[in-house]
Amino acid sequence: MYGQETIVPTMCASHCGGACLLKVHVKDGVITRIETDDGEEPQLRACLRGRAYRQRVHSPDRLKYPMKRVGARGEGKFERISWDEALDKVAVELKRVRDTYGPGSIALARMVGDAHSLHTMGPISRLLGLAGGHVVMWGITSFHAGVYASLVSYGTFFASNTRDDLLNSKLIIMWGWDPATVINGTNTCWFLAQAKESGTRIVSVDPRYTDTAATFADLWIPIRPGTDTAMLIAMAYVMIKENLQDQRFLDTYTIGFNQFRDYVLGAEDGIPKTPAWAEAITGVPAATIEKLAWEYATIDPAALMAGIAAGRSAGGEQYHRAAIALAAMTGNVGIHGGDAAARAWESIMGGYPYRVRPMLAGVDENVNPLAQGIPSKKKVPLGYRENSIHYTKLADAILKGKAGGYPSDIKLLYVGGCNYLTQFPNINKIVRALQSLEFIAVQEQFMTPTTKYADILLPVCTYMERNDIAFGVGTAFIGAVNKVIDPLGESKSPLQVAVELAKRMGIENFMDKTEEEFLEDLAKRSGVPNYAEFKKEGVYKFKLPEPHVAFKEQIKDPANIPFRTPSGKIELYSQAWAEMNTPGLAPIPKYVEHWEGRSDPLARKYPLQLINTHFKRRALSQFDNIPWLRELMPQAIWINSKDALARGIRDGEMVRVFNDRGEMIIQAKVTERIMPGVVDVPHGAWYDPDEKGVDRGGCVNVLTSDTYSPGGSFTYNTGLVEVARA
Ligand code: SF4
């Protein structure tokens, strides 16, 4: 009502690893203030990004009108046009490319954007499918290795406990896990704080002394990137040698321990995987490895929280497989206070006792004719598929097409929910690929680096300008994303864009429900008892009698409730992987020396290992342009003082970071909080090249490789660089 302030509850879920309740104050169509959950526990309290969201909604940089490009691609020169003109042009181009080159010439570059159910890129994917198809892409950006390893080992990726179960742990090992930054469940740090207060021992294994480690850990163990598997296997060695493993658990619930033991002890290859062996690889002292192995095997129960960052590497699958093997060896699977160690990120798909699957399904995308009948070349879901393109290879596929062994020659790219020219590896190759396309449509809220390459720009609204549903992360709840204000300017919701395009493409069966019908139905199918109340509160919190523990049923009743693997047991040895016979995917967890590690000859030229961690003031690349948040911390490369001294670099100076793939100029943060030999450029800063093509925005992906791991993981944390004074 005009002149009156109202407070609208809504749910932020900015693909940050959390989902939080916001109470948004609105007056005359303007957001004036944002508060957060102060109701019943568990409270879902917002972080700095959610609380700063009004600056994002009302940013002068918001794209409010459709535009067409009038300058060169990448130049950022656009001219306002009408929605009719924009949508007509996109529809005409989609039809032209489909009819001229075939549907495989159309590719969709998508990510999650907001972690919602309806206004995702699902509707556009459905539209393209119904319109004849689009080239099939595969690979999960954040955690492919973790999901794949979970499927192989447990037969499911629903493998997580609710976060409140951390209160039952006596030991928490945070392996590459930094929830103070990556959230990993809105309340994760709250539970860590309570666990610490009650005396739980907390250990961090990480190349960086993270904020989570600084706040909660009793011990920080720095480890070289890409060597986690070696340390985990050496811990297994200690347990076997000292007979610390839970043999009853292994005999009852697993297969393959004997083969794993033979490898660990060296019976298979003549190399015992001793702590000394691992020290040379990992940089972690043998005594430290031995002590942690003892602790994990003897402190009961213990949760090994296997973060997904270490899985985003050249050997990522085996890291997750090794973590799972240790969880089984210590009998920590399926019990309160333990953890299946599958991947510590999950929880939206954590297999909780509420019906999350309908929400994950969203609109029906299973309509792409090009995806029908593609044989899964591997026996395990998520493995390599024929006639498809891994997401890391999209730019390569655009540049090389069929002649390069890809399934089609891509001519048109539709981008949405995705800052492709910042978030994907090997940016300089992506730039060349984008220049070569016949047509690019981008739907966005801001003039991102990717948007500058659009031929037609379709402005979409923020989640505060539409309705949706978000789901619980780490805690069992469902969030009502309530529209707070009308869409600004002429911006439309992602669903509206797809519906309008569908009309122009002659598709009549696009949606059989209105937005509201869809959301109400979804909420009810997901277990929300009263939709009106849910909308009014902005959240429905499920009351669980006790913390949810993955695989509790299988552990309690193994005779009747098998694991969903081919053998019905936790597969430490995977027959499916054995039959695939893929280098790097050994059927038991094994450490394999990978490319661009410390032993790679390339390390003589580029001696520093590059990792890219998440950054508090961004959620991936979202929020990078929000002034309040930019004030908080500068984008900077973390470099150890030893490495800085050797290069004459002082804290705060500008430095060059480079390898054969690219170069950037960025501020140096000289710190003891990262181990020597490793540098970190926080992920998600927008690509901003100067006239020589040198990035000035701090976009780490000018340096990363577009190579994926044997199982399909992105390899963001595998790479070598050199740093020098600018
Ligand atoms: S950005 Fe993430 S953690 Fe922050 S308020 Fe939004 S959902 Fe919560």
Major beta-sheet overview: 6 strands, mixed
Strand content: 15-25%
Number of helices: 25
C-alpha termini separation: 56 Å
Q: How many strands in all? A: 26
List key phrases describing it.
six-stranded mixed β-sheet, 26 strands, binds iron/sulfur cluster, 726 residues, six-stranded mixed barrel, 25 helices, globular, alpha/beta
In summary, what is this structure?
With 726 residues, the chain is an alpha/beta fold. It contains 25 helices and 26 strands.
What does this structure look like?
- With 726 residues, the protein is α/β, with parallel strands linked by helices.
- 29% of the residues lie in helices and 16% in strands.
- It is built from 25 helices and 26 strands.
- It has a six-stranded mixed beta sheet with strand order 5-4-16-15-14-6, covered by helices on one side. A six-stranded mixed barrel has the order 21-25-22-24-23-26.
- It binds iron/sulfur cluster (SF4).
- Residues 12-14, 16, 18-20, 46-47, 49-50, 183, 186, 619 line the site of iron/sulfur cluster.
